[in-house]
């Protein structure tokens, strides 16, 4: 099966800044693919390279097997949901959604009917006459999605689409996006800096840093078996500790130890509590073991030790992951 | 935590001095603050501006005794009737046509310049743009107009340039055209048009640039992403969003051209524009009522224009 998007040695340099640097990746047809990374890591530039807003300075981009370098955005059957939605302020919702058909010369009645259908898909039927400015953030988000879907694109690109929503709405939209993607069987490429979002929604995740991909894999892979300190730290704020301390290797190697894998254990090793943070479901403990700081997440129903107290903790060395790369 | 004096009061003692105390009082009374802010401008606008305008309007309903030349202070529409005489009507139509042509040309010229400044110019290039656009406004209007008269004259640099480029036939062809032609550019409507265009262009560029600056780049990307060709993006997204700026600019270029009496006097043929008609009527002719009636014409035209622009939603984004 042809991959939806492939990058081969793709670079995008802005002067001396290497926004994207020799990236190779293959996004499979029909998958929900997340690009995760801190700001400035190159994930958004990668998305813009797929959309055609940026052209690569080097390398080869294929979309469903066809070369895409030099092809302008309006000749790509790929549509984008923008970070701030980019809804046209001088049009109502229906005309916004129908825009993609209008530029193709589809008649008013037909494109409005199609736009209605697209709005139904995102559960906004009947909102057509409103202006974008009259909608809430979540509704705008849905309009942007309906607008991106009306051209029946082969790939849907989403640039931090949930970033501006509050937590509750974000969780709801995450679920809906995932459901919609499954129902339509479309390839979704999703850019986010929120690791929870990436892990929970995506089939596969690419972790970006410094214009390069640090690791590509399933959510489970990325979380359980981070390839580098950066991935371990960025995804799930893992404890990166000397491997001998974690009990999985020798002292000049590093291991990642997930905070939730550290448990309070009367038979464990001594640790000084340097901070406690109540999070509701869990309590986060800052610990110090012989000069090494560690973070542990313990269920909130357990008795929390006080700051300054010495407690005992342990972990199953099998849960610790020895990392291949230092960086 | 050290260095914090916990014995200190959390509320500071009131400030002394009449000005400080007055400022503190005003800060606590925001409505009073607004009132004090708008009072001078309201008085200025109300008395000097609107008052003068009403006096003018009243004048236009008086008439002149044709034998004695004395203003008859009786309400009449006679003076407005005079506006409709063919000679005066020609002046009005000539001025409106010129203002329309100048406005359209200014919009067409300003758009690419403003677009470049809003989208691509950064840092010192943007500063250079502002200086380049504003600089002509800082020098004397009369000097510029006389300079243009020399440029456009038969012996001027433009004629010389056309000759050097072997394009004299083009210039002659242009000048031989009816209405817009003449003996030389400096005594033709084309000349008047060029000078108006030059003088008022900055007033179009600045608002168009301001409106384009407010169009997020993502909107154009979104249009392109959805399949709009550059032409469609312009027509369906960029132009409608820049329209408020174009309308704002056209208000300047249109009304400034409508009221000007110096440019057509220096560059152009001897046919009058509204501004010149007002000047002559209130000066040499001493016909204040007719001058007033002429002055009302641009006001009415601008009123209609603004009303139409508002209907089009041109001020929604201001």
Automatic annotation (TrEMBL), chain A:
SUPFAM superfamilies, A to Z: MOP-like (SSF50331), P-loop containing nucleoside triphosphate hydrolases (SSF52540)
InterPro entries: AAA+_ATPase, ABC_SmlMolc_Importer, ABC_transporter-like_ATP-bd, ABC_transporter-like_CS, Mo/tungstate-bd_C_term_dom, P-loop_NTPase, Transp-assoc_OB_typ2
Sequence ranges assigned to domain ABC transporter in this UniProt record: 5-235
GO-annotated cellular components: ATP-binding cassette (ABC) transporter complex
Record protein name field: ABC transporter
Any one GO molecular-function label of the UniProt entry: ATP binding
PANTHER family, alphabetized: SPERMIDINE/PUTRESCINE IMPORT ATP-BINDING PROTEIN POTA, SPERMIDINE_PUTRESCINE IMPORT ATP-BINDING PROTEIN POTA
Biological source species: Celeribacter baekdonensis B30
Keywords, in A-Z order: ATP-binding, Nucleotide-binding, Transport
GO biological process: putrescine transport
TrEMBL record, chain B:
Record membrane topology: Multi-pass membrane protein
Source organism, top-level taxon: Bacteria
Keywords of this entry: Cell membrane, Membrane, Transmembrane, Transmembrane helix, Transport
Domain ABC transmembrane type-1 intervals: 92-306
Family according to the record: Belongs to the binding-protein-dependent transport system permease family. CysTW subfamily.
Designated name of the protein: Transmembrane component of ABC transporter
Biological-process GO terms, alphabetical: transmembrane transport
A cellular component annotation (GO) from this entry: plasma membrane
Classification lineage: Bacteria, Pseudomonadati, Pseudomonadota, Alphaproteobacteria, Rhodobacterales
Spans through the membrane: 32-58, 91-115, 127-148, 187-206, 241-263, 284-308
Cross-referenced PANTHER family: INNER MEMBRANE ABC TRANSPORTER PERMEASE PROTEIN YDCU-RELATED, INNER MEMBRANE ABC TRANSPORTER PERMEASE PROTEIN YDCU-RELATED-RELATED
Matching Gene3D superfamilies: MetI-like (1.10.3720.10)
Organism per entry: Celeribacter baekdonensis B30
Subcellular location: Cell membrane
């Amino acid at each position: 099966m042809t991959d939806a998007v492939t990058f081969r040695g793709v670079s995008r340099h802005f002067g001396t800044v290497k926004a994207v640097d020799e990236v190779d990746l293959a996004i499979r047809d029909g998958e929900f693919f997340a690009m995760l990374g801190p700001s400035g890591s190159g994930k958004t530039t990668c998305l813009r390279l797929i959309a055609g807003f940026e052209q690569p300075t080097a390398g080869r981009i294929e979309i469903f097997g066809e070369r895409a370098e030099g092809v302008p955005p309006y000749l790509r059957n790929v549509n984008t949901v923008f970070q701030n939605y980019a809804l046209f302020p001088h049009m109502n919702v229906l005309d916004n959604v129908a825009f993609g058909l209008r530029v193709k010369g589809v008649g008013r009645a037909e494109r409005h009917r199609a736009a209605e259908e697209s709005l139904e898909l995102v559960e906004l039927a009947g909102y057509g006459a409103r202006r974008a400015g009259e909608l809430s953030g979540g509704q705008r988000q849905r309009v942007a999605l309906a607008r991106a879907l009306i051209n029946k694109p082969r790939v849907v690109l989403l640039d931090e689409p949930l970033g501006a929503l509050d937590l509750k709405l974000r969780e709801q939209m995450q679920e809906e996006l995932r459901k919609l993607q499954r129902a339509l069987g479309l390839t979704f490429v999703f850019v986010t800096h929120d690791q929870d979002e990436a892990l929970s929604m995506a089939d596969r995740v690419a972790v970006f840093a410094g214009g390069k991909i640090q690791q590509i894999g399933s959510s489970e892979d990325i979380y359980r078996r981070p390839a580098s300190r950066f991935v371990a730290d960025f995804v799930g704020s893992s404890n990166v500790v000397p491997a001998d301390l974690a009990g999985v290797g020798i002292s000049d190697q590093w291991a990642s130890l997930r905070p939730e894998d550290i448990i309070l254990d009367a038979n464990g090793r001594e640790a000084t509590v340097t901070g406690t943070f109540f999070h509701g479901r869990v309590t986060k403990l800052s610990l110090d073991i012989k000069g090494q700081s560690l973070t542990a997440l313990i269920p909130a129903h357990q008795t929390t030790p006080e700051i300054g107290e010495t407690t005992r903790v342990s972990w199953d060395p099998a849960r610790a992951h020895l990392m291949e790369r230092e960086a | 935590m050290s260095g914090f004096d916990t014995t200190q009061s959390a509320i500071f003692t009131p400030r002394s001095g009449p000005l400080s105390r007055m400022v503190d009082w005003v800060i606590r009374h925001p409505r009073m603050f607004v009132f004090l802010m708008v009072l001078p401008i309201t008085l200025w606008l109300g008395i000097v501006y609107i008052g003068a305008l009403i006096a003018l309007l009243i004048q236009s309903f008086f008439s002149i005794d044709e034998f004695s030349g004395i203003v008859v202070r009786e309400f009449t529409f006679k003076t407005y009737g005079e506006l409709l005489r063919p000679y005066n009507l020609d002046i009005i139509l000539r001025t409106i046509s010129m203002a329309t042509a100048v406005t359209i040309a200014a919009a067409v010229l300003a758009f690419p310049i403003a677009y470049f400044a809003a989208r691509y110019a950064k840092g010192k290039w943007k500063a250079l743009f502002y200086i380049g656009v504003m600089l002509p406004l800082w020098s004397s209007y009369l000097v510029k107009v006389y300079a243009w008269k020399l440029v456009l004259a038969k012996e001027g640099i433009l004629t010389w340039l056309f000759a050097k480029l072997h394009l004299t036939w083009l210039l002659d062809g242009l000048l031989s055209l009816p209405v817009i032609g003449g003996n030389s550019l400096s005594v033709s409507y084309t000349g008047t048009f060029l000078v108006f265009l030059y003088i008022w262009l900055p007033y179009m560029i600045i608002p168009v640039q301001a409106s384009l600056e407010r169009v997020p780049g993502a909107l154009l990307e979104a249009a392109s992403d959805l399949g709009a060709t550059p032409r469609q993006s312009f027509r369906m997204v960029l132009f409608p969003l820049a329209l408020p700026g174009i309308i704002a600019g056209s208000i300047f270029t249109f009304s400034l051209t409508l009221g000007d009496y110096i440019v057509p006097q220096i560059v152009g043929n001897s046919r009058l524009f509204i501004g010149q008609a007002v000047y002559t009527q209130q000066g040499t002719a001493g016909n204040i009522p007719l001058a007033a009636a002429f002055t009302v014409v641009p006001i009415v035209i601008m009123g209609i224009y603004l009303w139409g622009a508002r209907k089009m939603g041109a001020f929604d984004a201001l």
